[in-house]
Amino acid sequence: MRVAKHVVVSIDYTLTAPDGEVLDSSSGGEPLAYLHGTGALVPGLEAALEGKRVGEPFDVVLTPGEGYGERDEGLVQVLERSELPAEIELELGLQLMARGPDGERILTVVGLEGTSVALDANHPLAGIALHFVGAVRELRAPTEEELAHGHVHGAHGHH
Q1: Which part of the chain is CATH 2.40.10.330?
Q2: What pLDDT shows up at residue 90?
Q3: Is there a contact between 109 and 94 (Cβ–Cβ < 8 Å)?
Q4: Which end of the chain offers a freer environment for a tag, N or C, measured as fewer CB atoms within 10 Å?
């Protein structure tokens, strides 16, 4: 079996930034499992895994466009503190979940000045080249439920 559309793929991986900082890794934990061809991974990584077999390594550097996209400064907005729930203790780097017309989005607090709060709706890794290194650990056919839902379920069919 090879990595192809609608195959459940499990990978071991380490993701680093251009400066070598480790941003994420499955090392010491469970592999990342996803349903291939459903947009579960950034486009460049999914393309790099296409056709691989169990045990095959990958080492790929993705441009921002192949990853989480370019930064869009239009997605940074400044609000008055009073527009946010009073119980939230704001600090730089705090991530908030917001619902909008396009669904849920993570907002990161990037500025606090007086009564103003700057929120960034860009993905935290937008605008960054991403280096993924790892190997394909497991391939399997999806269950009917996983295909219907468009994503992998954990042990015992749970989300």
Answers
A1: 73-120
A2: 93
A3: yes
A4: C
Question: Domain 8-68+126-154 adopts which CATH fold?
Answer: Chitinase A; domain 3 (3.10.50)
Pairing of strands 57-62, 130-140: antiparallel
Sheet containing 103-113: which strands, arranged edge to edge? 76-80, 116-120, 103-113, 95-100
Q: How far apart are CA 90 and CA 81, in angstroms?
A: 9
Neighbour count for residue 152 (Cβ, 10 Å): 20
- 73-120: CATH topology: Thrombin, subunit H (2.40.10)
- Per-block average pLDDT, block size 10, for the chain (159 residues)? 95 96 94 93 96 97 96 95 91 90 88 95 94 97 90 64
Q: What is the pTM of this model?
A: 0.82
* The pLDDT of residue 98: 87
